[in-house]
Amino acid sequence: MSQTLPPIAAARLPALLAALPKAELHMHIEGSLEPEMIFALAARNGVALPYASVDELRRAYAFTDLQSFLDIYYAGASVLRTEQDFHDMGMAYFERAAADQVRRAEIFFDPQTHTARGVPIATVIRGLARACADAQARHGLSAALILCFLRHLSEREAFETLEDALPLREHVIGVGLDSSELGHPPEKFARVFARCRELGFRLVAHAGEEGPPDYIRRALDVLSVERIDHGVQAVHDTALMQRLAAERIPLTVCPLSNQKLRVFPELRDHNLKALLDAGLCATVNSDDPAYFGGYVNDNFQAVFAATGLTAQHAWQLAHNSFEASFAAAADKRRWRQQLDECFERHRT
Ligand code: ADE
Ligand code: ZN
């Protein structure tokens, strides 16, 4: 979709990006646990950490690929024990998101990371759902939860997790698929996604982060997902790119994550501009902001500075984020109007 926009000088672009109303659709709440909060929760819950200090933990955040990150990310989540812990983690993120002008956040959580340690799924969901309600009440920020199945675990374990979550179904808008991608193709979860679809959940999946374009195609065809998380490997498949553009299938792209996990050698090599210029419904998101060096606005600022995106791209990204969200149509209309007002305010 192209739009005639008010003229905006390049020098005003950083201020525009900071003020842009937006939706964040790819953020793992466990990945928002800052080292300081990991230490505070460890002390609160009497959990021993294999790091002497916040600085030592932060120094361990030197990743070479997705798996090297996941190992430390699951270890960090081990400090979460009580409903209050999940609530506090959620609120810390929502405060940051509200400051970044996020109007809508659809956040991932990984229940199996917690139930494996004996934390009941109800503790996880109730704590996060209370944070979502508080985000709306305190910041007018609309929030929803997406339950992710860990793809390195079995389909049977995914089914058990689904069963476990059903009594709290009203708090969960959709399901997703995350964790180690290579060697765990979408079809491993075909039946559990089919069941989730019957139950009325919205469906998303990580695909084409490190995995091949064909994982994206199979996530669409076998799992019937409505959005692809990451999806940046699609550029290697022309027919797939044409399909993603024609069907307006959203990609939730995470530039700083891709840089830190070496999906691209440098941020300047990121293909976000190519995705947008090919007409795909790409969006910008933070993935695991505490681990990858920034929240959603940091992602906008860094990828714009590194790749030369313009005000037109900024409008398109924000517009795409509302289009791609699972929010009500009336909310989307209101946020799009705020987007146009934001552009007027930044007119040169
Ligand atoms: N879990 C948290 N972050 C993830 C990512 N970037 N890819 C897959 N699983 C994840
Ligand atoms: Zn992710």
- Class by alpha and beta content: alpha/beta
How much of the residues is beta strand, in percent? 5-15%
C-alpha-based Rg, rounded: 19 Å
- Kindly give the count of domains: 1
Return the string of H and E elements.
HEHHHHEHHEHEHEHEHEHHEHHHH
- CATH fold name, please? TIM Barrel
Please mark out the parts with pLDDT under 50 across 5 or more consecutive residues, or reply none.
Answer: none
- Output the CATH class name: Alpha Beta
Number of helical segments?
Answer: 17
* Overall average pLDDT: 98
What's the total number of strands? 8
DSSP helix fraction: 40-55%
Task: Specify the overall morphology.
Answer: globular
List bound small molecules. Answer: adenine, zinc ion
Describe the structure.
This protein is of the alpha/beta class and 348 residues long. The chain has one domain: TIM Barrel (Alpha-Beta Barrel), CATH 3.20.20. Helix content is 50%, strand content 12%. It has helices at residues 13-19, 35-45, 54-59, 66-76, 83-99, 111-115, 121-139, 155-165, 190-198, 213-221, 238-246, 255-260, 272-277, 289-292, 296-307, 311-324, 329-345, and strands spanning 22-24, 102-109, 142-150, 172-178, 202-207, 227-230, 251-253, 282-284. β6 (227-230), α11 and β7 (251-253) form a beta-alpha-beta unit. It binds adenine and zinc ion.
